[in-house]
Each structure stands twice: as structure tokens, then as C-alpha cells.
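In this section we walk through a basic example: taking a raw amino acid sequence and producing a predicted 3D structure, encoded as C-alpha cells. The instruction is simple. Fold the sequence below.
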Amino acid sequence: MKIYLVGGAVRDELLGRPILERDYVVVGSTPEQMEALGYQQVGKDFPVFLHPESKDEHALARTERKQGQGYTGFICDFAPNITLEEDLMRRDLTVNAIARDQDGSLIDPYQGQQDLEARVLRHVSDAFGEDPLRVLRVARFAARYHHLGFTIAPETQALMQRMVDDGELATLTKERVWQEIEKSLKDGAIDVFSEVLASLNALPLVMPWLNEWTSADGQCLKARLAQLDPQDNDFLLMSFALWQCQAQLDDYNLEQDFKVPKAYCEALRDLQAALPVLQGTQWQPQTIMQIFNLLDASRRPQRLTLLCKAARTFSDELASRCDTLTHALSLAANVKAQDVIALGFKGPQIKTEMDKLKIQAMQALFD
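The resulting C-alpha cell sequence is shown next.
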């Protein structure tokens, strides 16, 4: 049995980037042997095991055969006689098909190091075309490593275009598509991710709310995204930038039609409801109370945090108002329901009187 470090850990180590997780391929073993050594099996479709101490994933070397459509239509073979080179051949890009053995030596049968040096994303084999999810993965890698000068190899771009033209992306589930979008959002380069998909005419299938990427609104969005802190370039802020550019997000039900998580959709609805109030000409304690009520900020302060996170990117004035909102929420928290009840108020009167007291307390921020 031989164990090799593979994939992203080797790639990022060679690029001098932090290694976030380590994945291993095991050659010459069986599920029974892995379990006997204390590994815990977690994979159902093919054997993946957790190391008994580090909990790093160890997958048995395998090959795949396409059967049916989509990214799930594969039959896996994980016999002990499968070689490392056969396992690496099934991977998407040459830069992800480099392995390191336990002595530290690199095994690179598909010239991944050469492509790393040339800053090229190139598919390993024609098997790439059997998995439509890889179109999104390449777009994501192109975005993640754009700042390092990486580009997509022309032959890989052409293969991706054929996959889009053949309708392969239509076989992807919305949940799986969202996972790739979210990963790219967290990488902080959704603009590059979207541009790659736009170049393939794939945006209508993946993110139709960004389908006008090359239009005036699209240019506006690019300019807005360029102003954002890469650490904050998440879906909320992308949606905020879109909204400011007058894109028609209301034409889509992101949660139902595209499986965007509820938390993101709720944050966008909060922006649509509260941001106009925050931007208004009237800025006084009553305005702040209106925002707090819109967001139920006393019970769910995280909604106010997300609103301010987006609003701060728009102007210094809104950033200042967000500072005031944060202080105001602290002052409002000092008003207790029991104190109002002790004064004899009941039912709906309690909230009305509490709001009055909160407004009085917040007045100190304006004096």
C-alpha cells in the first residue's frame, strides 16, 4: 500500500499558497484493509476514508466510466491494481493532477508543474468533457488565480464551449451549481468567474441575473465590485452592487428557482427594504427606529450587521450612519419591557412605549 498527497494541497504548496486541506490517494489497498488499519469509511459511491488521527481524507485510487448524463453518471472502479497515474488521469486540470509521495518526491505524469509555471489551466484528458460541473470548476479556478496571471488554455476553453453548446450544464442540479458559485464568491473574484461563463454564453444557465454582464448595467456592476474588499465580496454584496446598478433581481426567485440559501435571500430583502430609509434625507432617531423595526434588529441584530456591511461600501456618509446605527442599538437595548410593564402599559402599548423610550435614548447621538 502506498499513500500520496494529491490535488489542491500539492498545487497550492507549489504556488506558495496556504494549504487549507490535505487529500490523499491510496494505491494498492482495499476497503477491508483500510478499516483494519483504523480508517473510518465515509464515502458511499466510492471508498473514502478518514485517517484515524488527522481525519484527513484518504481515497482509494480509482478510475471512472461515464454512464448516462450529468456529473453523477459515473461508474467507479477502485481495484487495488489501479495505478496512481490512472487515478490522476481522471482529474480535471493538470495543475490538480500532481502527487507527492511519502518521501517528498513529486509525481507529475501530465506536466502540471509546467502549466503552473506557465500559469495555464489545462484539462488532463478528454474525460474532462464527461463532467459538466468542471466548466464551473475551471471558471472558479480562473477567478481564484486570476491575480497570479492564470489563463485558460485555448483547447480547454474550446472543450468547455462544446460542453455548453451540447446542453451539458442543464443536467446540473441548482444546489450543486450554487455550491460552485458560493465558493467563487468566497474567493473574492466573482467578476472573473462570471466573465468566464459569459464568454461561453453560459450565464443564462448558471446566473441569469448576471446575464447582462456586458451591458451598461454589467459595466456598472464591475465597477461596484472593484470597490469591494475581497474579504467581503460575498453574495450579499454582489446582490447589493447589482441592485444599485438597477439590475432586475425582482424577475427571479433566487431561493426557489436557483436554491440560493435563505439567509442570503433574506439579507437581500432587508437591503431592498431598509437601504432607501438609510439613504433618505431624514436622519433622526425616528429614522433609526424605523430601520430597527424593519429588521427586527433588537431580536436579530445580525440582520443589521449585514445591512451595514453592504451599506458601508457605498459611501462615507452611509458608513458614518452605520456607526450611528451600531451605537443606537446599544442604547436601545437598555430599554427593558419589564420597565414599561411596571408603568402599567399592556398589550400593543408595550412596544409603542418602548419605541418612544428608545427614540428618547437615541436622541443623545444627535445632540
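Looking at the output, two observations stand out. The domain at 1-112 is CATH 3.30.460.10 (Beta Polymerase; domain 2). The chain has 18 helices and eleven strands. In the next section we compare this with other chains.
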